[in-house]
């Protein structure tokens, strides 16, 4: 959450530049360790920890930086455009890596990944924005408490954060269960697993593309509510399905609705908060959205070992649906 404090105290573009330079060096370090044969599990763990730490500063800064580059009416489209690029890279990147890894080896992928950060750094250097508000130079501890107090005092914001945390904790662990469904429940093998994952990613990418192409949403709250209820319902049907085609369709709907909920919630929160505190609020958003997922994976996965995958995912989807309905009554 300290990344949000820094984002409100310093130029966001500068923070992002420093973050991506560090990420490039970390990726280059891993590539060198792999090609020299010196890499071991501790190197990977340390580098992964460092990457996660950098992202804790970069993600809330990047999210709040979008507001400085577009007008308020275009914020949702800009968030969707940013996310569509992410999902497209997530789908195409592993495919390219697979072709490269065969003839050139694993280390070549890490080298190319490190070089790819040059494009991001170049783009950031070319971005010009005169809009910048630096919060008062209070202590970091006081600034942190101020952001937390603001969230607690504004009911709509903390309920939106609860919705994101509920979705992340109870909803997103389904991704970890897909290999089990492909192998043991649907009996569709590795190819079917690829289709399952592709359907979820394709749904998210479709949702991102529709919003990014300029679709104007008049009632963001209604869109978020519908998407928030549709996501766990699709997940619940998927958990009970033994038919591959139905499972593919439900995962596509789940990915589509999840993206619409995330992007809409992101834009609603950013439009609610004042400029001088946006970075801190987005750091709380990032913590609830991304931070709860690993905890959910551990908790839901532990239950699955006791009562089975299908029952666990059905219960998880049901709890997610209840959480969405309860917390969804957030608008005064």
- Rounded average pLDDT: 80
User: What is the structural class?
Assistant: mainly alpha
Radius of gyration: 21 Å
Unreliable parts: none
Q: Indicate the CATH class.
A: Mainly Alpha
Report the helical percentage: over 70%
Task: Please identify, by name, the CATH architecture.
Answer: Up-down Bundle
Beta content comes to under 5%
Return the domain count. Answer: 1
Taken from the alpha-carbon principal axes, the silhouette is globular
- Describe the main β-sheet briefly: none
In DSSP terms (H or I, runs of 4 or more residues), the helix count works out at 13
Determine the CATH topology.
Answer: Growth Hormone, Chain: A
CATH superfamily: MFS general substrate transporter like domains
Q: From N to C, what is the helix and strand string?
A: HHHHHHHHHHHHH
What is the first-to-last residue Cα distance?
27 Å
The tally of strands reads 0
Descriptive report:
The protein has 332 residues and is mainly alpha-helical. The chain has helices at 2-9, 12-36, 41-65, 75-104, 106-126, 140-153, 155-171, 174-185, 189-212, 220-240, 244-272, 278-307, 309-327.
Features:
332 residues; mainly alpha; Growth Hormone, Chain: A; 0% strand
How would you summarize this macromolecular structure in one to three sentences?
The protein is mainly α and 332 residues long. 83% of the residues lie in helices and 0% in strands. The protein has one domain: Growth Hormone, Chain: A, CATH 1.20.1250.
Topology:
Elements (H helix, E strand, L loop, with lengths): L1 H8 L2 H25 L4 H25 L9 H30 L1 H21 L13 H14 L1 H17 L2 H12 L3 H24 L7 H21 L3 H29 L5 H30 L1 H19 L5
Helix pairs in contact: 1-3, 1-6, 1-12, 2-3, 2-5, 3-12, 4-5, 4-9, 4-11, 7-12, 7-13, 8-9, 9-11, 10-11, 10-13, 12-13
């Amino acid at each position: 959450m300290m990344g949000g404090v820094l984002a409100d105290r310093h130029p966001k573009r500068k923070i992002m530049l420093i973050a991506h330079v560090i990420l490039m060096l970390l990726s280059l370090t891993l590539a060198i360790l792999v090609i020299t044969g010196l890499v071991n599990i501790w190197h990977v763990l340390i580098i992964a920890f460092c990457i996660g730490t950098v992202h804790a500063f970069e993600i809330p800064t990047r999210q709040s930086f979008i507001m400085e580059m577009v007008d308020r009416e275009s914020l949702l489209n800009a968030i969707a455009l940013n996310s569509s690029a992410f999902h497209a890279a997530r789908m195409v990147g592993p495919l390219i890596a697979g072709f490269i890894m065969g003839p050139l080896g694993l280390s070549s992928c890490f080298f190319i990944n490190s070089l790819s950060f040059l494009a991001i750094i170049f783009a950031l250097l070319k971005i010009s924005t005169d809009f910048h508000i630096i919060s008062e130079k209070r202590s970091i501890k006081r600034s942190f408490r101020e952001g937390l107090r603001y969230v607690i005092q504004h009911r709509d914001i903390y309920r939106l954060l609860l919705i994101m945390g509920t979705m992340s904790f109870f909803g997103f662990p389904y991704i970890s269960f897909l290999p089990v469904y492909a192998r043991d429940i649907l009996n569709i093998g590795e190819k079917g697993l690829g289709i399952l994952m592709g359907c979820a990613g394709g749904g998210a990418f479709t949702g991102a593309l529709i919003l990014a192409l300029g679709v104007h949403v008049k009632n963001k709250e209604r869109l978020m509510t519908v998407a928030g209820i549709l996501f766990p319902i699709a997940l619940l049907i998927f958990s009970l399905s033994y038919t591959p085609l139905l499972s593919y369709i439900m995962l596509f709907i789940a990915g589509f609705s999840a993206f619409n909920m995330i992007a809409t919630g992101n834009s609603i929160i950013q439009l609610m908060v004042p400029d001088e505190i946006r970075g801190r609020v987005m750091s709380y958003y990032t913590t609830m959205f991304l931070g709860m997922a690993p905890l959910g994976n551990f908790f839901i996965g532990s239950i699955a070992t006791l009562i089975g995958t299908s029952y666990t995912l059905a219960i998880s989807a049901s709890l997610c649906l209840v959480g969405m309905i309860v917390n969804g009554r957030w608008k005064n």
